[in-house]
Amino acid sequence: MAISFSLEGKAALVTGANTGIGQAIAVALAEAGADVALAGRSEPAETLALIAATGRKAVNIKADLSSIEPVARVIAEAEAGLGKVDILVNNAGIIRRDDLLQFSEEDWDAVIDTNLKTLFFLSQAAAKGMAARGSGKIVNIASLLTFQGGIRVPSYAAAKSGVGGVTKAMANELAARGVQVNAIAPGYISTNNTAALQGDETRNRQILERIPTGRWGRPEDIAGAAVFLASPASDYVTGHVLAVDGGWLAR
Ligand code: NAP
């Protein structure tokens, strides 16, 4: 049997796809043949245009994912627009930086709610249809801080470590229903999320010194792993966190 990376006939939902990693993933899924729904709080005009240029259908769903309030509506609108959700990419995420000794409850709750709580409940809502159809793919965007503690980002490290945990928990219960759940741990990727780090001369140098590939990642560097984990080629891969980090974790 030929190995297939094709997503033709599939419907995908990507969160936080107006920019950065989410945009690159949404466009790559469309290039691989999927119709794509985008859920986020900002207008994703550029992403919609890039998907339209591939000839695939794009649906825009306005939603603030800082709470689980819009979860049922997001899945309902994606299913109404595309007929179903075969692939869910939980990409939307935030980061808050502060010294540990003064880290606030607000910075703790905001990051845990967006990066972990919404990710779980959106996955749960999408998985109901996937389980009923006997197939589906959930791809969570984790982080190097799924494995490490980081500096000045305790709620982010906690949330992304939690993403690794719920990825495995969901994978275990959904495998028998034909649904694979995996995560991608991006290394240091040049996006809005890391603008502060890139702008800090010392941290930027320290980061580059540790990356064997010798450069910051680009959002497109994450897209191939996402297409793989969304495609039939990964049907026997589940509960895995795949690092795409230029070799950072190998050091
Ligand atoms: P980004 O450019 O800041 O993108 C984050 C996306 O999440 C944006 O679309 C953002 O929308 C959306 N988002 C944030 N809060 C939201 C909310 N309450 N409701 C709806 N959408 C929301 O950063 P990125 O680097 O591409 O990040 C994408 C994912 O990769 C995140 O989960 C991040 O933690 C993870 N990641 C990034 C790196 C890296 O080095 N860049 C490394 C590891 C993991 P707005 O534009 O409206 O804010």
Automatic annotation (TrEMBL):
Signal peptide region: none
Keyword Mitochondrion belongs to the record: no
Ranges in coiled-coil conformation: none
Domain annotation Ketoreductase: ranges: 10-200
A Gene Ontology molecular function term of the record: NAD binding
PROSITE patterns for this protein: ADH_SHORT
Membrane-crossing residue ranges in chain numbering: none
Keywords noted in UniProt: Oxidoreductase
SUPFAM superfamilies cross-referenced by the UniProt entry: NAD(P)-binding Rossmann-fold domains
Entry superkingdom: Bacteria
Keyword Oxidoreductase on entry: yes
Pfam families per record: adh_short_C2
Family to which this protein belongs: Belongs to the short-chain dehydrogenases/reductases (SDR) family.
Name under which the protein is recorded: 2-deoxy-D-gluconate 3-dehydrogenase
Organism: Novosphingobium pentaromativorans
